[in-house]
Amino acid sequence: MILCHQPRWFQQTQVMGTYSSSAVCLLMYPEDPYDGTGFPGSTVLGAILSGIVCSVVILPFAWCLFRSRHAVASMKRSALPSTTMSNPNANLAPRDSLLAIGSVAPDFELPTQNRGENWKLSDALKKGEVVLSFFPMAFTGVCSAEMQCISGDLAKWSGKGAQVVGISCDSGPALKAWADQLGLKHTLLSDMHRSVCKAYGLYWADLNIAWRGTVVIGRDGKVKWAQKRDIPQAMVLDEVLAALS
Which terminus of the chain has a lower count of CB atoms within 10 Å, N or C? Predict the structure, then answer.
């Protein structure tokens, strides 16, 4: 048996694809204008029951599912590590000129090239004099030659009872990769907030990086020797060694 004509309410139900649409069709088309069959009573009851089930069961379940997924996503976001970097040197005052000999060297703390490791000036001074070697950028010619010179003569620095560290605005991972590439053995410090190079008067504002320079600090925390050099000019080792005790 082939059904050639379907009531208009049935066609509408098929298009909308839900039983709940039958209730709408019942209101819109109480009687089919083509054959007057109307809406069968059993289907009316089924449409009403389907609407009740949809309202009472399906919609609340969908809402709970949505809320649970939202809660899981929120938990995952809260579990991610914070990308905010604190700046322990935010209290340092910037200066336009190099620190004068005899002035008190600003104390600071910076991360080294080794992940999770920090270096603090006041702690290092308890062991001896400190040489701060500021340089503009890792993976550049003059900076590489200068740091290799320092690392290759560590025996001379330790013979003077001094510790020498390099400081730039590069990130810790970048300094680590650079140190591994060149085989550097001394400590490199990451001044990504630029607070330390600004406080020592060795900030290159045009490029937002550190200027090239060297500062020797005595155990009393005062500057013994300081030099700000042209960017292409590397440190002369003997000059710095002569400034040490």
Answer: N
Between the alpha carbon of residue 114 and those of residues 41, 104, 129, 157, 186, the distances in Å are 79, 28, 22, 21, 11
CATH for 109-243? 3.40.30.10
Q: Which of 4, 25, 143, 169 is catalytic?
A: 143
* Annotation says 25 is catalytic: no
Contacts of 168 by beta carbon, 8 Å cutoff, 6+ apart: 134, 135, 136, 137, 138, 143, 175, 188, 189, 190, 191, 209, 210
Residue type, 113: Q
- Structural domain boundaries in the chain: 8-77, 109-243
Give the tens place of pLDDT for each residue, 17-26: 444 444 444 4
